[in-house]
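Dear U.,

For the methods section draft, I wanted the exact inputs and outputs in one place so we can describe them consistently. I've listed the two proteins in the order they'll appear in the manuscript figures. Please don't edit the C-alpha cell lines directly; just add comments below if something needs changing.

First protein:
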Amino acid sequence: MANSSKLFSYPIYQYYNFGISHLIGLILFAIPDVVIAFTLGIWAFSALFVAGLYFLITRISRSRRSALISILIFITYPYFLVNLLTRYAFAEYVAISMVPMLLYLVTLLLDKGNTFLSEKDIKKKIDYILLDSVFVLLGSLFVITHNITTLYTPVVLGIPFLLFIFSRVRPTRASFLLLIAPFILIIANSLFILVPVAQNQNTLLISGSFAGILFNNFGLNDLFVTTKLFPFTSALSGQPYLTLQFGLPIVLLAIAFFKPKNILIYLLIGIVIWLIVAAPLWHILPPIFYVTQFSMRLFTYVPLLLIFAARPISKKVFIALAVITIFFSFFFIQRPNRPGQLIANDYDEFPSENQWNYRTIGENTTIPAPV
C-alpha cells in the first residue's frame, strides 16, 4: 500500500483519506455493486451541495432567484466537472460539496445559540442539540475526506465568512462559546486520520507534488473565451488543461453580483487567480500550503468566494444567465478512457523524473516544471 502511494505520488493519508471510502462501503453492504455505490454517492453529495448553496445564498442575498441561478452555474462550473468527470477526484468533489452546508449550519447554530441558555422550551433545546450533532457528523466527514480542501477552506473563506457572521448574524458571546464544543468533537473524531498525517508527512516519498506546486503553463488569456470557445482537457489527469477554467457564466455572475461594498471578496478572488497562474506569490507562503499539489485546485474557491457577494438580481438577468449557462453546460469535453486503463494511461503519460527541470522557490523546496 505504501509502495503504491510512492509510485503514483498519492501517499496514504496525505491526499486520499478514508472517510468517504467508509461511507461508500456502507452503501456496498446494501448494494454490492461498486459503480452503483459510487453513483449514489455522487448523487447524494451533489444534492447536499445544491441544498447547502440554496440555504446559504438565500440567507446572504435574501433572494431565492440569486440562489437558484448560482446553483445552476456552480453545478456546471468547469473545474467541478473536471474533478468529477476528468480527474475522477471523488474525495475532493465530496469535500467541496460539504462546504456550503457546513457554513450554513454554523450560521444556524450561532442564531439558535443566542437564546439556547435562556430557552425554557425543551423541544427547542433538543432541536439545537440535534443540529449540533448533524454539524459534528458532517464536519468530521469533511475533515477525514480530503486534507487539502480541509486546509485551504478556512484559510480562503475564513475572512469573508466571519465578516458575514458579524454583520448579518450578530452572535452573542454565549453562542460563540457553545460553538467551541462541536469543533472540539470534530477534531477528536478526526484524530485517527490527523495523527497519521502529521506522523507520515516527512517520511513518505511523494515526489515533487508535495514539496512544491506543479504550476501549469497557461496564461490569463486561457481563463476566458479567447482562441478557443469550449473547455477541453488533456489526457493527463494531474494537469487538466481547460480553456475555460472559469467558464463564461461564472464571470457574468461575478459581474451581476458586484457592488462596491463587496470589493474585498473580489480582491480575494483576484489573489486566488494570481496564485493559480503565477509563481511569485507562493514565495511568501508557508511551505505547508505547497500540499495543494497543483495550483489549479484553487479554482475551487472562485465560486465559493462569490457566495459572499451574492445579492438580488432582476428577472431579466436571471433568464439571461440561465440561458447562457445551459448552453455552455452542453460543451464540457472530457477525455475518453477505456475501462481498466485509467491508472496505466496516467502513469505512462507522466514524465519520468529525468524529464523534469526543478526550480527553487524557497529553502529546501523544489517545483517541477516540464521541459
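Second protein (the one for the lower panel):
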Amino acid sequence: MTHGKKNSLFLLSACMIVLFALCYVWISIYNRHCADDFDAIRDVNLYGIFGAIKHCYVSWEGSFTQGIVNYPMSELFKNNTSLFWYNVISLACLAGSCYLLTAYLCRKFLVVIRPYALLVCGSILATLFFTSPSIDEVWFWLVGSASYLWPLTFLFMALYFILKREEKVVYLLLACVFCFLFAGSRLNYPVIFGFFYFLYLLYDFRRGRKLNMKLLLPFLFLGIGLLVYVLAPGNFVRRGYAEANISLAFTTVVKHLVKGSFRIILYNHLFQLPYMAIMLSPLPLLAVSFYEGVPQWIKNLDLKKTLLRLALLYLGAMFVHTFIMYFALGDAGGSPRTRLLLHLVFCVFFASFYFFVGLGYSDNVNNKGL
C-alpha cells in the first residue's frame, strides 16, 4: 500500500466519521423523552423493570428484546432532561459490535490491519446514519431505538460469534444467546436474517458438507426466539385494537407487494444513492490498496455474476420484508422505521459492489502490467 493511497483512504474515511460524530452528538445533546417513552417510565414505576417486560409481553406485543433494552434505560434516564448519555451508550454498543465483526472479516479476507478496519466500520455506520429511513425515530427516540437500532447490535454480535463458533464453546453459546435476542426484536428482522441464514445452510449442504451442528444451533435459537415472539399473548391483544384490512386474494397480495416494493426502492434507495455513492467511496480504494491480501478465490469471482447474485439476494430480502409487513400490518412497505435492517442490507450490498469495482480495477491494472 503506497503512502498516497494510505493518506487518501484515511482522509476520506475520517471525514465521514467526524461528520457523523458531530451531527450525532449535536442532536443527542438536545434529545428528549417523547411519546411512548413516558408510557415506558410509567410502566417501570408501576411494575418494576421485570414486571414491565412481562406486562408488555402479555398485554401489548411480543417484542421481549425491546423491553429488555427499553425498560432498564427508561428507569436509568427517567429523571434526565437530556438523553445524551443514552444515545452515547446506544452508539457505543452499536459501533463496538460492528467493529468486532468488521475487523474479523477484514483480517480474514483482506489482511487489513485494525486501524483501517475501524475506518471501514465508521464509514459504513456513517452511511447507514445519514441515509437511514426515519433517523429521528430509529437513532434518537428511546423506545424507537430500543426496537429498531439495538437489534442491529445483537445481530452484529451474533454474526461475530457464529464466525468464531469453532474456536470456543462459549462463543457458540453466545451466538445462540444473541440470535435469540435478535429474534425477539421486530417480526421482520429475524425473518430477513433467517432467510439469509437458511440460504447459507442450503449452500453449505449442497457443497457436500455434513450437517454442522455448530452452525445449525444458532439458527435453531433464532427460530425459538421468533416462536416466543409470535406466540406472545400481547400480539393478539394489540391486534384487537387495530384490525388490519388484509385480503388473501392472490392478485390483491401481489398488488400490495409490488406497491410496497416500489415505495421502498423509490424513497429508501433511489433518493439515497448519490449520498451512498459519496460516503462509501473509501471502499473501492480499500480493495485497490489491499489487493495483494485478498484471497485468490475472491479475485477469481466473476464480477457480473457476483453482482447479479447480490441483487437477487437483496430482492429476496425485500420480498420477505414486504410479505411479512403485509400479513402482519396490512401495509407491505411498512413504516419507514421498520425498514432499517433492510436498508442495512442494501448498504452492505452497495459497499460490496464498490469493493468489487475496486477489485476489477486492480485486476485490469495487473493484467495490463501497469
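Candidate sentences for the figure legend, describing the second protein: The mean pLDDT is 83. The radius of gyration is 21 Å.

Thanks,
Y.
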